[in-house]
Write a structure and sequence with these properties.
By secondary structure, the chain is α/β, with parallel strands linked by helices. The chain has 3 domains: about 10-55, no CATH class; about 65-220, serine acetyltransferase, domain 1 (Orthogonal Bundle); about 225-335, Hexapeptide repeat proteins (UDP N-Acetylglucosamine Acyltransferase, domain 1), CATH 2.160.10. It is built from 11 helices and 16 strands. The protein has a 5-stranded parallel sheet. Strands 5-8-11-14-16 form a 5-stranded parallel sheet. α1 (about 10-20) links the parallel β1 (about 10) and β2. It starts with 7 loop residues before the first strand and ends with a helix.
């Protein structure tokens, strides 16, 4: 044991169970306490019973498929971000003459791991859909196709950075926007995830977008379509649904929801997946904090939606929608 480190203490039952299950004898590093027992073997057995019952229900008892690793994808994301912005998100102390080498090495590492995760997702999808086992070449082709989109992603992110800098009077520099603004962090994840989603990798794409959701409180579904110059100011609580379409130079503030108004079902009562159910925002739309926009409606170009507005109808270009106007509309609709 290292000096200053407390010795681990486990019960006799737990130690015996661990040794029998793994063949590893931990007696040299542990101290058995007869006064402490959590009945670990019984809990493990009960968890096993529940797990196997769940797998049986999903017809996966014999070979439950593996899933892409959230931790591995976090490392992939960090590598891709560093390759996209090596001078700001790359290695500390990186010198100009070493930038290209760093980008190449970092990309190679990230893309190799991404290829591994793509193989796992393709195998998972094949098992779920009872399809034939995908080839390693299929995964590699997707990884290569994704890699080719990275220059275009960097160009789009530059327009997002400019939109944030020009749209926020508190922004002092593009560098500050890149390293400090949660909206930009979420958009970086989205831009990468969206390309993977288009390549038929929805699970990896969703994990990447949810990593941003966990870190920033901004929930952008990777299936959403978002044009250049997108800016989310402050950001916490923003939700953008799977089929939302967002035009050029759109600005959202915190707690804005672009959601679905209703969820259609089939004749068996099951939700119909993939239907267009989220709003369309045309170019140059601004939506202020707390606004909720629901359904497959269109917000015309140049429109401004005020804070806390609840909107479920389309509005023409250059509209100015406030709470007062929506209340007036509701009264008018009731009178008719």
């Amino acid at each position: 044991m290292l000096t200053g480190q407390p010795e681990a203490s486990v019960s006799k039952d737990t130690l015996a169970f661990f040794i029998s299950a793994t063949g590893v004898d931990m007696l040299h590093t542990t101290t058995v306490s007869s006064n402490e027992s959590f009945d670990i073997p019984a809990i493990v057995q009960a968890l096993r019973d529940v797990r196997l019952a769940s797998l049986e229900h999903r017809h996966r008892r014999n070979k439950p498929p593996k899933l892409p690793s959230r931790k591995a994808l976090q490392d992939v994301l960090a590598g891709l971000s560093a390759a996209l912005f090596p001078n700001r998100l790359g290695a500390p102390g990186l010198k100009e003459e070493g930038v290209d080498y760093f980008v190449g090495y970092t990309l190679d590492t990230a893309l190799r791991e991404l290829n591994t995760q793509i193989q796992i997702e393709l195998r998972y999808s094949a098992d779920t859909e009872h399809d034939k086992t995908p080839s390693a070449e299929a995964a590699l082709n997707k990884a290569r196709a994704f890699a080719q989109t990275l220059p275009q992603i960097r160009q789009l992110l530059d327009t997002d950075l400019n939109a944030a800098f020009e749209g926020d009077p508190a922004a002092r520099s593009l560098d500050e926007v890149l390293v400090c603004y949660p909206g930009i962090s979420a958009i970086i994840n989205y831009r990468l995830a969206h390309e993977l989603h288009k390549l038929g990798l929805p699970l990896i794409a969703r994990i990447i977008s949810e990593l941003a959701h966990s870190a920033t409180g901004i929930d952008i579904h990777p299936g959403a379509t978002i044009a250049e110059g997108f800016f989310i100011d402050h950001g916490t609580g923003v939700v953008i649904g799977e089929t939302a379409v967002i035009g050029r130079h759109v600005r959202l503030y915190q707690a804005v929801t672009l959601g679905a108004k209703r969820f259609p079902t089939d004749e068996h009562g099951h939700l119909i997946k993939g239907s267009a159910r989220h709003p369309i925002l045309e170019d140059d739309v601004v939506i202020y904090a707390g606004a909720t926009i629901l359904g497959r409606i269109t917000i015309g170009a140049g429109s401004v939606i005020g804070g806390n507005v609840w909107l479920t109808r389309s509005v023409p270009p250059n509209s100015q929608i406030t709470q007062a106007k929506t209340q007036e509309q509701a009264v008018s609709d009731t009178a008719q």
